[in-house]
Input
Amino acid sequence: MTLAFQLGNFGALITFGLGLMGLFMPGVAARFTSITPVGSMGVSEIRATYGGLFTAMAGVVLLAQDRLLFGLLGTAWIGAAAGRLVSYWWDRNHQLKNVGAILFELAIGYLCLAPVIASWWRNLFA
Output
């Protein structure tokens, strides 16, 4: 396994772990993301979105080991960071936690994108 795929797997494993946290520890996930679930439907939403969605996406990527799927997962993380950047400027959310979350999401995104980026570099200089 190449270094690029090892990095991609690391990013997918982090995503999978965060998904397990959302699925089985929704209170911890809620505090981690600074959200407050409203009633049992709010908890269900955390389990579904932060749990099931993250776990399923990362699980498929880890099983398939497909460059395109790593790219999709990485792009999703980059998209999350982009949304936070909008909040940084539009909502004037300059809190350190928001800036840290932007960096965290960019880091996981680029880890997941490593197999795609490595392929681009190989093709560029082939």
